[in-house]
Amino acid sequence: MSPAPTEPPLSSCVVVDLSTGIPGAYCTKLLADGGAEVIKVEPPQGDPLRGWSASGATIRPGDDGALFSFLACSKESVVGDPELVRGLLESADVAVWSPGSPLSPQEIHRDHPHLVVTSITPFGLEGPWRDRAATEFTLQAWSGGIVGLGRGAPDRAPVHVGGRVGDWVSGAYAAAATMAVRLRAPCIGELVDLSMLEAHVLSLTYHPVTFRDMLDRPWQQTRRLNMPGVATAKDGLVALGCATAQQFFDLCAMVGHPEWIDEKSPLSITERATERASVIQDWIVARTVAEIRELATAFRIPNSAVVNGANAPAMDHFEARQSFLPNPRDGFLQPAPPFRLEPARLRPPVPAPRLGEHTESRLGAARRATRKKDTGLAFSDLRVLDMTAFWAGPSCTQVLALLGAEVIHLESTSRPDGTRLIAGVPPTVDQWWERSPIFAGLNSDKKSLTLDFRTEQGRDLLRRLIPTCDVIVENYTPRVLDQLGLDYEAVRALRPDMIMVRMPGFGLDGPWRDNAAFAFVIEDASGLTWLTGHPERNPVEPYSIGDPNAGVHALNGLLLALEHRRRTGEGVLVEAAMVDAALNVAAEQVIEYSAYGALLERAGNRGPRAAPQNLYLTADPDEFGRPDSWVAIAVATDEQWEALRDALDRPGWASDPELSTAEGRHAHHDALDARLAAWCRERGADEIVDRLWPAGVPVGKVLQPHRQAELEQLRFRGFFEEIDHPVSGRARYSTFPARLSRSPGPRRTRPAPLLGEHNHELLTELGLTAQEITALEADGVIGRAPTR
Question: Where is this region: Disordered (predicted)?
């Protein structure tokens, strides 16, 4: 095996960045962190992000906004005419494109067939919605994400997830798709057509179409606040959550009411917590945040401080792990990369370029590169041991399965994957554990093996299985594998070139290392919760983005590790802490506070860029017969404001000259909301969309998430595919948010496995006889049904 190179995994990859906005910038930042040479092509006036501040801070001429300085670390900048751009493309390996570039992605793909061309658009390059106006806010509406998990109090409008998270996660998916295509065929070009709407569906909703198909009911019909959720303590805000019945029972004991524990109650955890909410709140308000967190941690109840841009860097865990680093050019604090590699290396951040800083040097360097033939990675030759559960880990390994890898999902009969248990199917139903839409949506095209690690036989079989695998992905708390004696060094002793991806909630070290972590806790701890909700109330946990965001970032780290091993033959440990991924997509909060002293605050359904932006009640009842049907409208540009005026037949109230600028519209937002609310209240949602969207105004229906498959754009792109399941029947499943030109893209071909379905197949491969396998089943080491 050759020694590890000093260069990061993508050091031989040249990327031309033709994008604007957060999605493309974050995509190319992840590639630059991985070592790619990223050349950002800008117009003479520069990328609009150079002048951006979410808090409205003044950016002086010649300076750059702090967000740009973060996203452009380790990149070059050229101001290029078409001839220079074509030369750059000819000598590059990847081009990242978003609307606004003078060249189309199809044209780039045609004229430069060696390139991987990654296009990032709201709806995709083809289909009936391909040219429709959209913002991140209206995409959340169309995706079903605004009401996807019942977020918000029922007496108010639902709330979107703050911080433009859909933009960030779209960039993460674009980076992963780009790397996967290059790994598969390093010297062959491809057009990667990423849809931000589809990335929103995967990140903000929890397989609602599959849920409706399999169980004939929606995931939720009403909005609710999570209990206890974010609560007011004696000295500030604290977040507590219960994702399992045991955690609720522990909460009951912690607040001094063990008599509430009833294992036979027909009510859900949320319903039981809501019943006791006032007593729980009284207990919380009488104690400090530190007291509550110390007790909750001792009881192993998920908990966190409610983090924001001001207090995040001072959190002891983040200080210990150096989760924030000074920007190399401007000195403000920014998140460290979202994952760590060992012994492979990420590139240390290099100062962002000034506008056109590298134009002159690139003029002489833009020539056709000599490309050597390079062997790609056949994902079908990859065996992955999937030691994950719930949402974050399985969403990472699911993509590998869709790409063709053999993924072995490891469970035990005493502790099956938790998503098998949360569908609300009663134990009286035959094979109830095989009827979970969530498990089915996250685990298709995988195999299932059950092993009880508490037994010496189970541990021995696991050690025999590991050398047959190329990759291990796990998301236990760190102490679990430590107790099994299966940390990375132990695994490397079994297979030296192993890639091991560890996805702990808070990392492998630091004061919060062993804290329980679920999506909502990660959101609380990173600032994602802080920006979600109405300003006059406590923030609301998104309860969605923390897990899938961790999954796609772990996937990016894993793909970098695969590239490192492809080049060197060397194994890699990838530490992909869930909270590190969340801190990166919430980066703007710490950046704005550190650079400008501005604390970003939640603003209901308004946002820092568009005005007017809000949800407006329509004349329709919703599908459940309630007056709860909404549309999302977001005017992001002066041109869109003119389009809105035209669509409304230029009413007198819209003729004020102050409203012709974004500054004026922000200043008069309350009045604009009142006018638009009155106009929308007299019309149905379809009428509003049909009136505004063809005129060029970003608008979206606040979709019930189980209706996603009815959207004509998603139907056109084949985003949902039908699969038969042997127990739960036929259902529709979401796929991957990008279409690929040389193949239809990652697809689902087999249903999720039955518990222990592949025990005999996989154990036979390890050399066990039929009699030995039967004995293991009799001893409870393996099995096909939960034991409790």
Answer: 347-367
